[in-house]
Amino acid sequence: MSKNGVLAKEPVSDGAVDYQRLIQLFECPVCHEYMRPPIHQCKKGHVICQKCRPKVKGICPLCKQLVANQTNLMMEKISTLIKFPCVYAPKGCDELVPLREKSHHETTCARRPVHCEYARRGCGALLPLRDMTGHVRQCHFRPA
Q1: For the segment 127-137, what is each residue's pLDDT rounded down to a tens digit?
Q2: CA 73 to CA 102: how far, in whole Å?
Q3: Which CATH number fits the domain that encloses residue 51?
Q4: 3-state secondary structure 7-53
Q5: Which residue from 46, 59, 43 is spatially nearest to 35, judged by alpha carbons?
Q6: Of the chain's two ends, which shows fewer C-beta atoms within 10 Å, N or C?
Q7: Does any domain span residue 123?
Q8: Is 79 within a domain?
Q9: Nearest 5°: CA angle at 24, between 104 and 69?
Q10: Is 136 inside any structural domain?
């Protein structure tokens, strides 16, 4: 589940793995985004993402132990085997994508918010890409 409590459609499973709980293990305890390698850990094994490591100044936010210089190799390997929800899942995207494709998907996702092409003329609309065509056809800032 992401920081906003939404998980995209669950992949087909035989019930051997609780996919929702597995995905939760990859949430950074600081920013609540999904971690990607390198995944740092403290001396007790709590993990933290690369982006948040400088923010915690070497101290684990969960147990106050030192964040080690090594990464969690097992978590890094598992992260390459599973699919993660799109950041726009709360806006209706139900895609699950491997980490190596996640950034690309999110830059092309039909649910990503985009500004109206008439923003320079004063339109403040910020809508999912998939809804923008309809908006542009009837935008009040569209030239006559």
Answers
A1: 999 999 999 99
A2: 20
A3: 3.30.40.10
A4: CCCCCCCCCCCCHHHHHHCCECCCCCCECCCCEEEECCCCEEECCCC
A5: 46
A6: C
A7: no
A8: yes
A9: 80
A10: no
- What pLDDT is recorded for position 14? 63
Total-model pTM:
0.73
pLDDT tens per residue, range 77-128: 999 999 999 999 999 999 999 999 999 999 999 999 999 999 999 999 999 9
Question: What proportion of the chain, given as a percentage, has pLDDT over 70?
Answer: 90
Q: How far apart are CA 25 and CA 17, in angstroms?
A: 13
Spatial distance between the Cα atoms of 63 and 8, rounded to a whole number of angstroms: 30
The pLDDT, as a whole number, for residue 65 is 94
Length of the chain: 144
Q: Write out the two tokens for 124.
A: 């403040």
Tell me what the mean pLDDT of segment 13-29 comes to: 87
Decide if 80 is inside a domain: yes
Give me the domain span that covers residue 56.
19-85
Q: What are the residues whose beta carbons fall under 8 Å from the beta carbon of 21, sequence distance 6 or more?
A: none
Instruction: Quote the CA–CA distance of 84 and 28 in Å, as a whole number.
Output: 14
